[in-house]
Amino acid sequence: MAVSEVPESVGTTTSTASASVQSDSNLNLPSLRRRPVFHSSVNPDTCSEVGDQKLEAPNVINQKIPEQVPDVSALKFAYRPSVPAHRRVKESPLSSDNIFRQSHAGLFNLCIVVLVAVNSRLIIENLMKYGWLIKYGFWFSSKSLRDWPLFMCCLSLAVFPLAAFVVEKLVQQKYISEPVVVLLHITITTAALLYPVSVILRCDSAFFSGVTLMLFACIVWLKLVSYAHTNYDMRALTRSIEKGEALPNSLNMEYQYNVSLKSLAYFMVAPTLCYQLSYPRTPCIRKGWVFRQLIKLIIFTGVMGFIIEQYINPIVQNSQHPLKGDLLNAIERVLKLSVPNLYVWLCMFYCFFHLWLNILAELLRFGDREFYKDWWNAKTVDEYWRMWNMPVHKWMVRHIYFPCLRNGIPKGVAILIAFLVSAVFHELCIAVPCHIFELWAFIGIMFQVPLVLITNYLQNKFRNSMVGNMIFWFIFCILGQPMCVLLYYHDLMNRKGNTN
């Protein structure tokens, strides 16, 4: 056990004894010499010079001070048996009052080592049991080459933004009235969503192709709603200004109402869902940086496909329906599926929200790149939904939540409406490509509403971020997502079996 050479403090008895032993000769020791000081009668302005010149003042020792050596007399009385070893109240490092004040870097390293060891064993066990299962059918099968109707449908989605632009041009020239504009925009946005749904349902397409088309369709729908809603609001503000009505100082009118095809085209490809005439831009495109992010995107996409083919597929194929059969077997399958499912979810988040959106933003010199916040530190379910997908969150706040509040709808009902819209789109993106409408995704999203209330209550009760964060991780990664994967897989297999 290493002991410091200098004690925390020396008691009165020890200090007195040490002082009595010192003799006049000890004052000549280099370690006990006093540093040169100025007397109060000396004017400091007359005795200091700039540079390497020596200080000149009366009664000042200008001799160079040698290096200090340990004081032998002080060490002689250090850590005597009579010196107290316990002087103040201290907590253990892992006590509840002291645990968050300590650095846990060593434990974090231990967790990484254990994680690597456990997953290495799982990889070896999986290869010994199933062999190499990687196939190209999940991503691009022969059926994917026959999905040309979905590809053509994806390309034809550009017609709907052009139709919305024509409508805005007509209302700008005052050829049509506001009620007609609203009706036309509702028709355009509805058609932009129902057209891809009908194409997917009519074609027996690959799952990945259907999901991709539905994601594009949902993004186009959200952008068109923002485009129509923003222009409607800017027309209303312009009319208020023309009438001479006073606007609040908090209202920032940076842009005049203008319908521009260039701004609409940039908005449709920009990594945002909220329309505005101008966006913060970066000065240049970092080509080397873009290339490095593309390499990362390819690598992590491959890792995601490897985990799905090698781990998730065997687990779900050897499982039973989670709502039928043996309960213990269902729990075992859910827990076994939770780990690879978590890895796929994290890879998906990193590939899309970090790599892809940043690559797109860099190519378009889009400046605002807050596509996510530190959702992994979320203490409640409410915080998670506000931080993990910032483009959708900003769209919800701008076009659903605050418009509901301005129309007198209570806050709780406005939150419920926002979750309802999110649930509908989650169901469309999963159920339509699977050709299954069991509402599992819809129920899973709407189940977040009571979870928001429960986690907020627990957070206010315990006042501990650790409790809420653990509940969040358990609900999303251990219980929720693996359960949805098993439910949709078995319903899909049952549908294919009935079809055959």
Automatic annotation (TrEMBL):
Signal peptide: none annotated. It comes from the Eukaryota. One of its GO terms (biological process) is triglyceride biosynthetic process. The lineage of its organism: Eukaryota, Viridiplantae, Streptophyta, Embryophyta, Tracheophyta. Residues 9-25 have a biased composition (Low complexity). GO terms for molecular function: diacylglycerol O-acyltransferase activity. Pathway: Lipid metabolism; Glycerolipid metabolism; triacylglycerol biosynthesis. The keyword rRNA processing does not apply. It comes from Senna tora. Keywords: Acyltransferase, Endoplasmic reticulum, Membrane, Transferase, Transmembrane, Transmembrane helix. This is O-acyltransferase. Residues 1-27 are annotated as: Disordered. One of its GO terms (cellular component) is endoplasmic reticulum membrane. The chain crosses the membrane at residues 107-128, 148-167, 179-201, 207-225, 294-312, 342-364, 413-433, 439-458, 470-490.
